[in-house]
Design a protein that fits this description.
Layout lengths: L1 H6 L1 H6 L5 H23 L4 E6 L3 E8 L8 E3 L2 H4 L9 E6 L2 E4 L2 E2 L2 H9 L4 E7 L2 E8 L10 H51 L10 E8 L7 E7 L5 E8 L3 H18 L7 H15 L6 E9 L4 E7 L5 E6 L2 E6 L18 E4 L5 E5 L1 H4 L10 H11 L5 H16 L8 E8 L8 H13 L1
Antiparallel strand pairs: 1-2, 1-8, 2-3, 4-5, 4-7, 5-6, 7-8, 9-18, 10-11, 11-12, 12-13, 13-16, 14-15, 14-17, 17-18
Helix pairs in contact: 3-6, 6-7, 7-8
Amino acid sequence: MQRELISSKSSTWNAIAADPEFLCQAVEKSLRGSVQCISQSLRIGQIALFVHTGTTYELAAGSGVPRGHQYALEAGAALQQLFHSHTEPVPIGWFDGTAHILGEPLDQETSGVLASLGAEDLVGIASENQAAGFLCLGEKAGGEPLTPGDVRLLQAMSYQAALVIENCRLSTALAAEFAERQRLNWEVSVVREVQSRIFPTARPTIPGLDYYSDWRPALGASGDYLDYFEMTEGNLGLAIGNVSGKGLPAALLASSLHSMVRALRLSQPCDLSELVTQIDESFTEMCPDNCYATLFVARYDPLQRRLHYVNAGHELPFILRKRGRSYRTIRLESGGPVIGMLRKPGYREGSVALNPGDLLVAYTDGLCEVTNPLGEEWGWRRLLEAIESCGGRTARDLVDYVIASAEKFAEGAPQGDDMTLWLGRVADAGAHLDPTFAEHKEMIATAA
């Protein structure tokens, strides 16, 4: 990080990252003794060191400078001339109370500050052709002019001050950046903690269904969204989505999406298309322009072994159905556009019967987009092969194996996007539903 800052000094000078007050305090601590030494050596009663802080020059150190005054000067064009082709002290001319340098009058405010300091000469301090600051010199004892030896000493002081100011500037900029990173890390940790609570940990028991999930945020905070919950009549609700963008903004929107689904999931338990329409309206109202989210919402009826779903532009979930030694892939096609993008889009509900032994897989695109150091993507085909290669395992073992396979493929390359995987297995033939559960559902249906 320090190497990057040092290699881009120009941008650091033009846009100060550090707090000006903190910068001046650091310069004073480093140069106060040198300023006092120059004052004594040259027998100049008043010397003030000003530091360029972006738009102004702020007093950083001084000798014989009156206390209780605010010393700050606008970084005008006339003062900037001190740093171009003038390595020696520049005398100040006074005409009718107005200070002139190099034949140019200064504004009244600047003239007033220089007058209060008894200014006779200014010595520019430059670094990398940038304005670092200047020394303001009062009258020498006895009114004597500066000697060539005095000038050489001031030039050496100017060079030393330039190095010190640059080091202080870089140090304070690093400190400011470190503090900002610490603040962002804290915010990310808070969001991560919130998301860890949002992502479900308890799994409702659904007869005849073994399911499991896992997620991996890329930047500490995730734009992926996953939730599952028990619905009326013992059905399982499933929602998985992906908010556009990354980091904190996407994580906040994903948390909002979670709240919307949770709030609306019981309002229309049998009409998923209406549920997604309401979520789209709420999400559109609160999300920024050009922001959207993919969303797959499903309801699984374990008694009928039927999955009802709406796919709002999400990465297509799929069913793997065993056929002899191979699998048949059934993709759950889209039921409408992404949410938050179009005005009042239409959504349609689909349904599919699940057979004993079927595997239902839902995921976010970051899983397939895992990239290795050669730039190759893991891809949907490798995801499919990983699941098929050990399709007989439990849902948890399958999820762990798939994510481990993707991470092994990456070979340590940074994760570019959040990745989430949910996998469910319908009980094989011979595994029966709890009879009390079936009887309970039948009683509910009869009463209705």
